[in-house]
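Progress narrative, Year 2. Work on Alpha-glucosidase from Frateuria terrea advanced from sequence curation to structure prediction during this period.
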Amino acid sequence: MFTAWEDRGMRNEERTIRRWTATATVLAALALYALPSTALLAASNDNNVEWSGLFHDQGPLYDNHVEPTATQAVTLTLRTFKGDITSANIKYYDSADGQFHWVAMNWSANDATGNFDFWKGTVPASAAEKYYRFQVNDGSATAWLNAAGITSSEPSSGDFFVVPGFTTPAWMKNGVIYQVFPDRFYNGNTANDVTNGQYSYAGCATEKHAWGASVTSNAGGCNSAVFFGGDLAGVDQKLGYIKGTLGADILYLNPIFLSPTNHKYDTEDYLKVDPAFGTNTTLQALIGDMHSSSNGPRGYVILDGVFNHTGDTEAWFDRYHWSSVTGAYESQSSSYYSWYTFQSWPNSYSGFFGIASMPKLNYGSSGSAVRSAIYGSATSVVKTYLKAPYSIDGWRLDAAQYLDANGGDGSDATNHQIMAELRTAVKSANPDAEILGEFWGNAGPWTDNGEEWDGAMNYDGFMQPVSEWITGHDYGNGAASIPASQFDSWLRGTRAHYPTNVQQTMSNALGSHDTTRFGTRAGGDIWKTYLALIFQMTYVGTPTIYYGDEYGMQGGADPDNRRTFDWTVGTSTNSAVALASRLIAIRNAYPALRTGSFMTLLTDDASKLYAYGRFDAANRLAVVLNDDSVTHTVAVPVWQLSVTNGSRLVDQISGTSYTVQNGQVTLSVNGHYGAILAQ
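Result:
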């Protein structure tokens, strides 16, 4: 939405807890990953479970049905050091009977290196949601493994999910998002530009600024009245850059519907494209060109749905008497009066965080008129754009946690009921549509039951930790720095919040229209942008590029984070743009980078190094990142990925080839850069 301040206190508390509550035993286990393969000879039945040999996630080699139907049993694989354990069990909770159940695991095979054993067990099919963990035994010693990590005592949270019947869109898992703030991207039709003084709203007259000029208004406090002329025709004309030069295939547009402001988060008419951006026909043309495969990869379009509140100029409210319709602000007899919540009509009403220009919609009880208008009926806003002639591919839900009844602040049973109904509506119009919720913390309450969102804006599990590790600042540009080991612990902890198919559709951005620009947090150091791009394109989730972040665009807090795109920089000759393009191509070439397993390989706080593996049956990749300002030589333990000695790994960025010796690959990595080694 506008700013992140409303959730910051909660996020800071969660962040502090997450930083310092990672157990020393888990970190010790991660450190053991760096041991050479000769150390494995000590693994035996000696009443000691070797933690560094344990691995499971829900990648394709370890879970045969990540998205099972109600009739599909799920076979799970656990990895241990060869000959290390005496038995293993799956312990799972079944929501149908509220009980825990045990499944004994059996030895299945060894890996290609001969270092590891694989154990298998099967959770029986049913429609009920389940949660599981592993009990691993070596004689009298026991270790527990779940999504949150390895512990010596049984965990009470952080289990893996099994959610039968819940699928998330494959195109979202496999795609790359490009986010556009329409007024600031490209002016494709000067005839629809907003001019100086064209109209006034809330005491502010419109201002037309030259492309590249300041985003700050000439009249104090009127930044939302500043326009630059960017429009949908401009986005359409630059699809060659988005789809061709970069290779992104999902277009996410900030709000485009009629509104008196440049940001459009105060909707005046959901069924009309703002004239400054074009027409509804212009939108149809853009969607059609994005869907086309003649101008690059077949693409997808996600629109920003601002359904928590309207603008005060919406005819349903009509604070300024702009409409011929009698709005709720104008008369208590208005048919729309109950669509809002008044404490004392007309001037005291519930607004989004008390903002008078954004009166909250009252969703009332199930089947209310508001629910019908927004998502329930065949002619609702949500369904209108999911169906022809628009046929968009998904909705990003702005301030989604706050949709509620009677002016409440959401995040309660009513909100979840609304979101479940909205999901039913969306999927009835397009079963393959994406529902992407905005939430700044742990979005599990909306994703983990498979009945509400497909994924969320991953501020907590991606943007914040990446910013702190690489730039030493949080996404608001406040001082905050973490070493590689805490970065890895944070990532593991936040992945554990979600089912795997949700993790794979989380929107992973370096910045957004609500945060300080990543390039500014990085102090203008383009090499930090390089490093962030390498991580972004190889981590679990859907990479999301906020326009301009691919070349290190600068910008402070809102509205400065919404500067105009510099088309003299946004070209294939720019080193950062070229790298982003290369990284997207690498991601597209290796499914393991999209839906494969994720395994930590090493963390080195002193040298600021981080390495991890992404792998599936076809390929094994080791990603090595250097957050230091100087070059470091590092030995990467690729034996943990079951890569055999003598294997050849090629850095997909530089083209350099390496040979595995003694289970390791040794390479030098430039400061604030990385390598993607593929077998």
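Confidence is low (pLDDT under 50) at residues 2-41. The radius of gyration is 26 Å.
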